[in-house]
Amino acid sequence: MSHPTPNSILRLYSSMLRTSRSFSSYNFREYFVRRTKSTFREIQAEKDPLRAASLFRKAAEEHTVLKRSALVNQLYGGWRLVVEKQKPVRQRSDS
Amino acid sequence: MLGFKLVMPVREGNLKEKARPIYLDMQATTPMDPRVLDAMLPYYTDQYGNPHSRTHAYGWEAEDAVEVARKHVADLIGADTKDIIFTSGATETNNMAIKGIARFHKDKKRHIITTQTEHKCVLDSCRKLQEEGFDVTYLPVQPNGIISLAELEAAIRPDTSLVSIMTVNNETGVIQPMKEIGAIVRKHRGVYFHTDAAQAVGKIHLDVNDMNVDLMSISGHKLYGPKGVGAAYVRRRPRVRLEPIISGGGQERGLRSGTLPSTLVIGLGEAARIAQQEMTRDHHRISLLSKRLVDGINARVDHVVRNGDPNGYPGCVNLSFSYVEGESLLMALKDIALSSGSACTSASLEPSYVLRALGAAEDMAHSSLRFGIGRFTTEAEIDFVVEKIAATVSKLRDMSPLWEMVQEGIDINAIDWSQSQH
User: Fold this and answer.
1) Which residues does A35 contact at the CB level (< 8 Å), separation at least 6?
2) A12, B10, B144, B345: which one has the fewest Cβ atoms less than 10 Å from its Cβ?
3) Residues B114, B236 within the same domain
4) ipTM, two decimals
5) In chain B, positions 345-404, which contact chain A (CB-CB < 8 Å)?
6) Model pLDDT for residues B254-266, shown as the tens digit of each residue
């Protein structure tokens, strides 16, 4: 496998971030967003191109797992936690 | 139009739209990591073979996956793959280890050593053995929760068959000096060393050879895996022999008969793999959050005592709030899922025996709260908890006559509460 270009790294990063944000459970969402950021910071900081390539491949594998997990989590995701922003209570405009 | 629309299922109770409390009870159980569930789902749907079926592909694929899981668990604790035996959880493993070793060697050896702060299932197994005529020594702990090595060494007798000491305490997070204990036990031939590491595996670095552990208990749902599965490490070289509790088809080296729950085992394996991969990152983060919690509460509330060794596992913080009753604090903190001690005894109002063993006074043991911080805890949650605790404690103290007396400078302990002279 060829070495990842900066562009492909960026593409995977934004895609993984989007997947992480799609978790409906607060704790999982926050965790995977945080983790994705730190993973890609690690790839960016890696000087050795071989190691960077292997880290990139691992991240790409994790992305497929994450996509499926996010789907399952959306299916069964529950209520919001007290620390999250609550859904606004909508009122009738004429009240 | 062809195709389909993804409809979100409306589950019962969804209409209420109630905000859920935040979860801070990671010693009771941890949420299952979504990646673990993803590894398990294929085996709940298409790959349903019995891992012990040797005659067809369904069995082979399940067996292969189970062996991969076994390797992940073994790697996590530095063991050999063949040393790992899957069970239903740490309680079963503890029972298997303690009763199994004691009963196998009962002709020559009739003495067991454990500590006063062990988990209920260890203490209860020992009590059962006492009924069978075994002699059990319950080692006391120092005020910081750690056992005294000299006392351990003095307690070992020629007829001792087993020393069972937990690695990380489930109520206080105290970490016992496993390496030193292992070295002492190893000096005495024929004494086996068992450790209940349910709260430690995947959270702190463990190596069974480094610690000279002969048997270890592992629980799946304490390391972000599924409930209902655990593992036992049983050393093969030098061979540890024990009498199995469950007899049957001879699976798992004959120590634990019965079909393996392959899906759960695969979940445990994946959880172990992730735990190994994330351990450094998790530990660093949990330490930061733990410090944030303790510093935050100490800055806002007076008369808070930290129970147990402050250098223990940072994900378990046990605090006592003087002049406040723990249970009423829990009732007032509806938005936080907490516990005053272990989940097994949370139904009773008795003060925790672990805190009593540490030498905590009865009123302090009654006013304790255990904060469990884990992989998925966030800073926002910690800040929320600090805020709530500070508000609730001061509200409860304002109602308390004891607190009023303390503010006036009366020494509570000097008061004679009995009214016998009247």
Assistant:
1) A20, B281
2) B10
3) yes
4) 0.89
5) 375-378, 380-381, 384
6) 999 999 999 999 9
